[in-house]
């Protein structure tokens, strides 16, 4: 599974090369936030301070 740290100090994880049709990945950011992009087109972002946003494949956003 490809993973590493980018130039901004953010850690990332992406699918294994053996799963080429899987487009999900996630970032764990240096500021404590994290972001998921799922293969169904949905995304999830948590700012690391108690606030999160889920975006459904339809584009509808849900905040918590």
From TrEMBL:
<feature type="compositionally biased region" description="Polar residues">
    <location>
        <begin position="1"/>
        <end position="26"/>
    </location>
</feature>
<protein>
    <submittedName>
        <fullName>Uncharacterized protein</fullName>
    </submittedName>
</protein>
<feature type="compositionally biased region" description="Low complexity">
    <location>
        <begin position="27"/>
        <end position="48"/>
    </location>
</feature>
<feature type="region of interest" description="Disordered">
    <location>
        <begin position="1"/>
        <end position="64"/>
    </location>
</feature>
């Amino acid at each position: 599974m490809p993973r590493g740290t980018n130039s901004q100090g953010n850690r990332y994880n992406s699918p294994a090369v053996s799963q080429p049709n899987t487009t999900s990945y996630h970032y764990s950011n240096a500021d404590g936030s994290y972001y998921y992009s799922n293969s169904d087109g949905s995304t999830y972002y948590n700012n690391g301070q108690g606030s999160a946003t889920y975006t459904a494949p339809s584009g509808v956003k849900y905040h918590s």
